[in-house]
UniProtKB/TrEMBL annotation:
InterPro entries: Acyl_CoA_acyltransferase, Bact_Acetyltransf, GNAT_dom. It comes from Neomicrococcus aestuarii. Keywords: Acyltransferase, Transferase. It holds the Pfam family Acetyltransf_1. Transmembrane segments: none annotated. One of its GO terms (molecular function) is acyltransferase activity, transferring groups other than amino-acyl groups. Gene3D superfamilies: 3.40.630.30. This is N-acetyltransferase domain-containing protein. Residues 12-170, 211-347 form the N-acetyltransferase domain.
Length: 347
């Protein structure tokens, strides 16, 4: 239901013509709420054009004159999670327009559209709605709790500053590589599909994760303008031959890794200038406990430090089954904020 005080406002899907105003709104929210999640128009355009997104039906902008004052966006995952369709809610309200009912209006729209799209995409399956709250106890969390959501999982945002960071013992600059793992720079054409297979297996036992399709992986992950392959790393299964490692070089761009070749991987992005964001770290179950993720992450960090990056950040499940939190702390990361994922059954 629309608050009568907001009746004069215009409600439209988000279009490419709105990218400038949408960017302003998203970054104003990030500054006010201190989330650290700032975007460029190009990054937001990627979200509009992501596979499976119908920008006319899956986005909402509320305008007061020429000013976008609230927005909502919906994504329904391709895969199921424990038999449930997963509807991911996103959105926000201009800090100057809060406590006017706009957040409740956006959430009501998300409920309606999320239920409809999930039923279209995954007929016969119940739908679980999910939304990310950057600050437990905030007005966003109160809105979610008042609308039937419950706290499902906590996540930690971690950061390190390169001006004071030194690699942990055993990984210093110039230290010899491990003999039992072939760690190489990520090459999208050669390594992309094998890394997707590794990711889907590595995250199969992680809370809230759904499998990635080839289209989604190539578009949203590898195709993102923020992706930095030169700072990403993979570990190839040591049972592969030396000849294969030689063949898989930049001199032979047509050589492709077998689907089961990648044991571990680190994928790096740069959303803000000279700020490294580690988007994903994963290890296949067969290779866990060998320190591969640590080695790859440290190599990525050392390369970023050489290239003049000022800091690195990542997010981690506070109850990760791989004990990732402790690994990141040993490398030098420290928790800077805590977020919570809220969930609610829609159907």
């Amino acid at each position: 239901m629309v608050n009568p005080a907001n009746a004069h406002m215009v409600r439209l899907p988000i279009s490419k013509a709105d990218l400038g105003e949408w960017t302003r709104l998203v970054n104003a929210i990030a500054d006010f709420d201190q989330t650290g999640e700032k975007y460029t128009p190009t990054l937001l355009e990627e979200e509009l054009e992501a596979p499976g997104v119908d920008q006319d039906l899956d986005t909402l902008a509320i305008f007061d004159g020429d000013r976008m004052v609230a927005y909502g966006q919906l994504h329904v995952t391709d895969g199921l999670r424990d038999g449930y369709a997963k509807a991911i809610f996103g959105g926000g309200v201009d800090p100057a327009y809060r406590r006017r009912g706009l957040g409740a209006e956006v959430l009501a729209w998300l409920f309606k559209r999320g239920s409809a799209k999930a039923a279209e995409k995954h007929p016969g399956h119940p739908t679980l709605a999910s939304m990310w709250i950057h600050h437990p106890g905030s007005v966003d969390e109160i809105l979610a709790l008042n609308n039937g959501f419950v706290r499902a999982r906590y996540f930690a945002d971690m950061s390190l500053n390169f001006d004071v960071w030194e690699p942990p013992a055993g990984f210093e600059i110039g230290a010899p590589p491990r003999p039992d793992a072939l760690a190489v720079e990520f090459l999208p054409k050669q390594h992309g599909e094998a890394t997707r297979h590794a990711h889907n297996e590595a995250f199969a036992d992680h809370w809230g994760s759904t499998s990635r399709t080839k289209e989604n992986w190539e578009s949203v992950v590898l195709g993102s303008v923020a992706f930095r392959p030169q700072l990403s790393r993979i570990a190839i299964n040591p049972e592969l031959s030396t000849e294969l490692s030689t063949e898989l070089s930049t001199e032979n761009p047509d050589a492709v890794l077998p689907d089961d070749a990648v044991d571990a991987y680190v994928l790096a992005t740069e959303y803000q200038d000279k700020e490294l964001y580690i988007s994903t770290v994963g290890t296949r179950r067969r290779a866990r406990g060998k320190g591969l993720a640590t080695e790859l992450l440290v190599e990525s960090l050392k390369q970023a430090q050489r290239e003049g990056f000022v800091k690195a950040e990542l997010g981690v499940d506070s109850a990760s089954p791989t004990g990732a939190n402790a690994i990141y702390e040993r490398i030098g990361f420290r928790v800077v904020r805590t977020s919570v994922v809220m969930e609610r059954l829609l159907t």
